[in-house]
Protein: FAD-dependent oxidoreductase domain-containing protein 1
Organism: Aegilops tauschii subsp. strangulata
Amino acid sequence: GHLLVLENFDMLKLNHGIMELGYVDHQGDNSHSIHLSSTSNKDEHDAASISMTATLNTKGHLVLGSSREFKGFSREVDKSILKSIWDRAGEFFPAINNVHLDIDEDKEIRIGHRPYMPDGKPVIGFVPDMSNVLIATGHEGSGLALALGTAEMVTDMILGDPGRVDFTPFSIENRFSGTA
């Protein structure tokens, strides 16, 4: 996913972070999707979904995002995605619609990978044959939204409590072997 960092950006003052859950159903719904190239076969894995996030980093710079893309391990900057992030932020903060964004001009762009599982559910649980190793991964772009629930599940697993939800669907064991 892409993030755009704007140094000394005074047009927008935040006192807390803002996160739109605009791509919760990205794999099934591309209503906020853009296609990455004209040669795209319009498959959902060739599309990027944009969800507005706005926060300040530790230096006080505005961080706008974010994108969800299914394009392997590519870390290339895609200017069309950055423009879509800017346009989406403008829907939430109309004051920035009159500001020209020159992506090539001294902007910090962050690109990171978002691990996900083929079935769309994160893996949360003990690693088979390693009873003292627990993993929580594959949340993809929903990590922040699922953090509290994941933390509660992990805590219950460590303490040996039965938990409020069935842990089985999130276990790695037999999940991708076709024997589930």
Notes: The radius of gyration is 19 Å. The chain has two domains: 2-111, 123-170. Strands lie at 2-6, 18-19, 33-35, 47-56, 62-69, 108-111, 123-127, 130-137.
